[in-house]
């Protein structure tokens, strides 16, 4: 019988947390030029001086000074100068969330069942504990990952999300980089401006 120490359980939790954080979807953040925007494109615009923290709109037109947009929830078009726009993104289709949801489900399922097996192995005493140890933890983690991944993929198949690309505004340096998105609000990344 192999008993797991509290340190081994702690390292299992640390490793599992790191894997959960690393399992987020990496996304490229290269920018398109604003000249590629066309009438009817869906955009997200952030213009703090216009009290637009992050508004969705439809492009009606553009000129050398700004964009003419029909803002969701507002009547009439608005022309916003490029100098007042802090960030602009254009929608380029929809993407299935099957892979992302499967990875999250596998990480949660594997981590959950693996930690449960590790705790059971560390606290179990007597004849009923035969067979518990690292092999049981490994098998439990694998089974949890398979079941969690399957459930995650099933849930993700019913969900489609918008794909947004950053737009480079006139007079601003282009940037590109790589971001790591872990959850709906957590983003880690870097960018390079040319």
Characteristics of this structure?
3-stranded antiparallel beta sheet; SH3 type barrels; alpha+beta; rod-shaped; 2 domains; 194 residues; disordered C terminus; 7-stranded mixed beta sheet; single chain; 3 helices
Instruction: Report low-confidence residues grouped into runs of 5 or more.
Output: 22-29, 178-188, 190-194
- Main sheet overview: 7 strands, mixed
Distance between the termini: 60 Å
In total, how many beta strands? 10
How many structural domains can be distinguished in the coordinates? 2
Write structural notes for this entry.
With 194 residues, the chain is an alpha+beta fold. It folds into two domains: 75 residues, no CATH class; 75 residues, SH3 type barrels (Roll), CATH 2.30.30.30. It has three helices and ten strands. Strand 3 and strand 4 form a beta hairpin. The longest helix is centred in the middle third of the chain and has 26 residues. The C terminus is likely disordered.
